[in-house]
Design brief:
This protein is α/β, with parallel strands linked by helices. Helix content is 41%, strand content 16%. The protein has five domains: 192 residues, Rossmann fold (3-Layer(aba) Sandwich), CATH 3.40.50; 74 residues, Orthogonal Bundle (Arc Repressor Mutant, subunit A), CATH 1.10.10.160; 233 residues, Rossmann fold, CATH 3.40.50; 159 residues, Orthogonal Bundle (PCRA, domain 4); 59 residues, SH3 type barrels (Roll), CATH 2.30.30.140. It binds a DNA duplex through α6, α10, α29, α30 and β26. Keywords: ATP-binding, DNA-binding, Helicase, Hydrolase, Isomerase, Nucleotide-binding.
Length: 893
DNA sequence: GAAGAGTTCGTTTTT
DNA sequence: CGAACTCTTC
């Protein structure tokens, strides 16, 4: 067998002599020094002369203190927009520069890949060099995967274990619940997954679950948890929670190993410490236990992931955990104007249990936070759309007043406005000679001097919502007015069906114990393997104590399968064997030498590249053909996605490496494809900033969310309040909060009350607008439809009840707004119109169906029609589902 | 095994 | 209301 000759690839070996040479000689273009080599320079410089510490000069005193306190525990309390990443990266540079640590001796953990990436880039920029030398800068999960692959056998796993995502997790739990004879309806797998996750977040293994907790899930939670863990082990798989938990277990059981890592990781840095859960906290405490050189950065006011197991307590308790810790507060904000900061501070100060920070800024002028109420959710969306158009075209007052537009040059500004015009000469100030290349709405065509209005770019604008269903109204509206937008946080590439199918093939190749993947592909594409055949295979596997692939082999050999199933499975097995023999296997992971951890990976030699193999698999399995033969409108898109998938493989050494990437990196950045307004949730916006931010839907029950308050009481409310704080502090120049008096909730109209957070806004920093405030005399309220359609019980009157106590309600603006909303009419209680009129059809009549489109009635049997649709073939359906074609215009679709 | 009928249940989400 | 799921029927 050819692959007996293993190649050992040293991924990042460290050669001291080379480092010395590099430090001594000026570097040439080809041979640039690595980070470790630079660190050596630092070490030498520390001995023989001053290292270059110019990165310290741009830090403010607080940042500088946080950067220069290198030894011992440090807690950096960094408010929103206070330059925390800057401080963190400068600190890493300083550690290297002062010769305190080699790049591989620094453990730096973040929560998201994005944050990790940014940190790598910025450290690299500071050090003027590539990031190769920092192997332990990454997310908690990616660092844990590396550790766990090295020591998998200590928790009875093989180092090529699979990482299951939530989907696999649920499917597995479903199987277990059914096996226990529990009604999956009453005790859904989702819920069990939630319970198990919360146990894992708190580092509770099945054996450690105490009395009361055992009652979870109908008293069978613990047993199912144990069964689940056992099943994961036979599948040689882990879930996300396990990545941390297994490593914690290993460290707890093997003090000698822990000690080794404590020595290896001389300095630890943690980003977003307020988001750590118990397992992560234990993990950090174990690793920092020796030297206590740990620097945690966080903001208790931005802790918004409590519902996912994050413990604000971790950050509140830091000084107790690490006595003598240095606490540094970063309070100078470089992002927002004073009005925005004051509004955010006023809200967050209503929370108890804070470490307390006061953000301040030099940016004293700017726009007040705007507050506006609307009649209903659709109107809110319409207003926001019009505001954005006004800003974008430079018509709005804000766009004109704006001091520091982000757009860099008049050319860009003009190109944005005209989509193609060019500035040919800059005359003076904002007057430019312009050569218009085609008809422009903005100005007459031709060459001439024009004043370019200042405008707001669409990608400077974000709409941040509490719940994703709020996005719908904005999407609908923006679609109809043709405003480009981008939704962040939709369904992700790697969660699509075709991608998961393809990856299931790769998974079986890389890790034959992955039964979940095998189940997924055994009849995809169709091989005539139904439930019965699968059952036979499962029985064969179980009774022989082998995985499903081997079980299938036995089932075929013993003649347990018949007909199509038999030949189908046999063919699949032969294919799998062939593909497996072509796969580049990773054979060893992680080798250490005496006093350093050398990250290395060993591979078998490849006969064909993993990319060719992937194409071969998709092709020979018939999977590609399956979609080619598919007539559904999604099919071409899916084939396109498969091509994308193969392309993505190029960046990886082998299939296994790719699978790991996919499991850990759910890339959500859907590229910068043009200038668009961003629509996203408040959670998704953490860490981001935008010049202009809209915060719609500030209504009781929606924000703060009812469920949050029901489930977690005051704690929940305080987390919602932190979310409000996060939202406001995303804005740099202009922040607009809005709410609607009426909103459709699950199809029912509901009168809404303004959010209590609105009561907490400081009137001095808020500009209360009337609904038709900024532009034109035509109020939105009356535009285009009769508001008398709404009935009784005006919710604006409910606002009145609270008007006395809240700051903002005493402003003239609020009173004007209130007048308008009440004059416009009062909301009507919901009326559901049962419009199920019986319609008689005749043969040959043209009809319309919501899904199938237009067609012709071919035959009638009582209620049942046979309709030949223009584009969807002939169908039999009940008369109630189609309309006469001439009435179809009434049906929006 | 696919189409269509009926049912249920509705936050936030990274890894 | 509408997506996602299951159940029914051919």
């Amino acid at each position: 067998m050819a692959w007996l000759f293993y190649i050992l690839l040293l991924m990042s070996s460290y050669d001291e002599d080379e480092a010395f040479e590099a430090a001594a000689a000026p570097t040439s273009g080809q041979h640039r020094p690595s980070l470790s080599q630079l660190a050596m320079q630092g070490a030498r410089a520390a001995t023989f002369g001053a290292p270059d510490t110019s990165y310290l000069d741009s830090l403010n005193p607080a940042q500088r203190e946080a950067v220069e306190t290198l030894d011992g525990p440090v807690l950096m309390l960094a408010g929103a927009g206070t330059g925390k990443t800057k401080a963190l990266t400068a600190r890493i540079a300083h550690l290297l520069n002062t010769g305190r640590a080699q790049p591989r001796e620094i453990l730096a953990v973040t929560f998201t890949n994005k944050a990790a990436r940014e940190m790598k880039e910025r450290v690299a920029a500071l050090m003027g060099q590539d990031i190769e030398g920092m192997p332990w800068l990454g997310t908690f999960h990616s660092v844990c995967v590396k550790l766990l692959r090295r020591h998998a056998e200590l928790v009875d796993l093989k180092s090529n274990f699979t990482i299951l995502d939530t989907d696999d997790q649920i499917r597995l739990l479903k199987q277990l619940i059914n096996a226990e004879g529990i009604d999956e309806k009453r005790w859904p797998a989702r819920q069990l997954a939630g319970v198990i996750d919360s146990w894992k977040n708190r580092a509770l293994t099945p054996g450690r679950i105490s009395g009361g907790e055992g009652e979870e899930f109908n008293g069978r939670g613990v047993r199912l948890y144990a069964a689940y863990q056992a099943r994961l082990q036979t599948l040689n798989a882990v879930d996300f929670g396990d990545l941390l938990l297994h490593v914690v277990t290993i460290f707890q059981k093997h003090p000698d190993l822990l000690e080794q890592y404590q020595r290896w990781f001389r300095y630890i840095l943690v980003d977003e410490y307020q988001d750590t859960n118990v397992a992560q906290y234990l993990w950090l405490r174990l690793l920092a236990g020796g030297h206590k050189n740990i620097c945690c950065v966080g903001d208790d006011d931005q802790s918004i992931y409590g519902w996912r197991g994050a413990e604000v307590g971790n950050i509140l308790r830091f000084e107790k955990d690490f006595p003598g810790a240095k606490v540094v507060r970063l309070e100078r904000n470089y992002r927002s104007t004073e009005h925005i900061l004051k509004a955010a501070s006023a809200i967050i100060s209503c929370n108890k249990d804070r470490l307390g920070k006061d953000l301040w800024t030099d940016e004293t002028d700017g726009e007040k936070v705007r507050l506006i109420g609307h009649w209903d959710g659709e109107e809110e969306a319409r207003w926001v759309g019009e505001e954005i158009e006004a800003m974008h075209s430079g018509v709005s007052g804000f766009a004109k007043r704006r001091k520091n537009p982000r757009s860099k040059t008049p050319d860009q500004e003009f190109e944005r406005l005209t989509k193609g015009g060019r500035v040919s000469e800059h005359v003076a100030g904002d007057i430019h000679q312009i050569n218009l290349q085609r008809e422009q709405a903005l100005s007459p065509a031709g060459v001439g001097n024009y004043k370019i209005p200042q405008s707001v770019g669409l990608d400077e604008i974000a709409i941040l919502v509490r719940a994703s269903h709020q996005m719908r109204a904005f999407e609908d509206r923006f679609l109809s007015i043709g405003l480009p937008y981008r939704v962040i946080g939709g369904p992700r590439f790697y969660e699509r069906m075709e991608i998961r199918d393809a990856m299931a093939y790769f998974r079986v190749i890389c890790q034959p114990d992955d039964d979940l993947a095998f189940e997924r592909i055994i009849n995809t594409p169709k091989r005539g393997v139904g439930d019965k055949a699968l059952q036979e295979i499962q029985i064969a596997a179980r009774s022989n104590g082998v995985n499903l692939v081997e079980g299938a082999r036995i089932a075929v050999a013993d003649g347990l399968l018949k007909g199509k199933a038999k030949s189908g499975v046999a063919q699949l097995l032969a294919d799998l064997d062939r593909w497996t023999s072509l796969n580049v296997q990773q054979i060893r992971y992680g080798v250490e030498d005496e006093d350093a951890l050398v990250e290395d990976v060993a591979y078998e030699p490849a006969e064909i590249s993993h990319i060719e193999l992937a194409e071969k698999i998709l092709d020979e399995s018939g999977y590609t053909k399956m979609w080619q033969n598919d007539k559904s409108p999604e099919a071409p898109g899916r084939l396109e996605n498969l091509k994308e998938l193969v392309k993505a493989l190029e960046q990886f050494e082998n299939l296994a490496g790719f699978l790991e990437h996919v499991a850990l990196i759910m890339d959500n950045d859907s590229g910068n494809d043009g200038e668009k307004v961003t629509i996203m949730t408040l959670h998704g916006a953490k860490g981001l900033e935008f010049p202009v931010v809209f915060l719609p839907g500030w209504e009781e029950g929606l924000f703060p969310s009812q469920r949050s308050m029901d489930e977690s009481g005051t704690k929940g409310l305080e987390e919602e309040r932190r979310l409000a704080y996060v939202g406001i502090t995303r804005a740099e120049e202009l922040c607009t909060i809005s709410f609607a008096a009426n909103r459709r909730v699950y199809g029912q109209w509901q009168a809404q009350m303004a959010s209590r957070f609105i009561d907490e806004l400081p009137a001095d920093h808020v500009d209360v607008m009337t609904p038709n405030g900024l532009y034109g005399a035509q109020g939105n309220m009356g535009a285009g439809r009769s508001l008398d359609d709404y009935g009784q019980d005006s919710s604006p009157s409910r606002f009145q009840e609270r008007a006395a106590k809240a700051d903002v309600y005493n402003s003239p603006g609020w009173k004007r707004m209130q007048q308008r909303t009440s004059r416009a009419g009062t909301p009507r209680s919901p009326v559901t119109i049962e419009a199920k009129a019986t319609v008689a059809f005749t043969e040959g009549e043209r009809v319309f169906h919501k899904k199938f489109g237009y067609g012709e009635v071919m035959a009638i049997e009582g209620e049942n029609l046979t309709v030949e649709f223009d584009h969807s073939g002939t169908k039999k359906l009940k008369a109630g589902f189609v309309l006469p074609a001439d009435q179809a215009g009434d049906v929006p679709f």
